[in-house]
Amino acid sequence: MSLADFLRRKVPGFKHAYVSDSGVQIGIRESRHIVGDHLLSQQEVVTGAKHADVIARGYFPIDIHNPNGRQGASKDGGVWNDIDDSYDIPYRCLLPKGLNGLIVAGRAISASHEAHASFRTQGGVMAIGQAAGTAAALAAKNLVSPRDVDINILKSALVADGAMLVRDTHRAAQDKQRADAAVQAALDNGSISAAYLAR
Q: With 50 as the cut, is the pLDDT of residue 72 above it?
C-alpha cells in the first residue's frame, strides 16, 4: 500500500491508480530443489561464473532473510552479499540427474540455498522459464530427449527471442552510469533515502 501511495503522489500518470487485488497468503520463498547435472553454487554466483551452456543470467545479490522471522534482510541474522558480476545459469541445472524426459524451471532448479537467494527473483525465474520452454519445444520438434538438445541451437533460439546470454560490457557500463546518476538525483531531491541503499 505504501508503494501505491508513493506512485500516486510522485509518478505522473498514477494520480488515480489503486491496488485492485493482492495475494491472500504469504509467498513461500524456497522449498525443494532438484539435484541436477550441475549444482549452481554460492561461489559461482558471487564471482560471476560463466558457462558454455548458459541459458539465463543472474544479476541479484544473495539475499537471505533471517530464518527466525525478524524484520530486515541485511540485519538481525539475515544475509546480503553483493556479487562481482552477473553470472551464468547453465542448462545442466534444469536437467535432473539420472532422469530423462524432464526439464525443471523456476526456483526448483539445481542450486544451493545461497545461489537460490540470488536467482529467485522474478526476472531470474522468468528467464529460466523461457529457456525451459524453448528447450522443451526444441526437444519435441527434433524428437530428442531434453538432455540431447543441441545447446548452440537452444542458445541461438533464446537470443533470437530477446534473451541476453552474454554481457555487453560497454552497455553495462553505460547502464551503470545512468543508474548511478538517477539514484544520486533522487537522493539529492529527497525522493529516496540512503537508508534503503545496499551500498
A: no
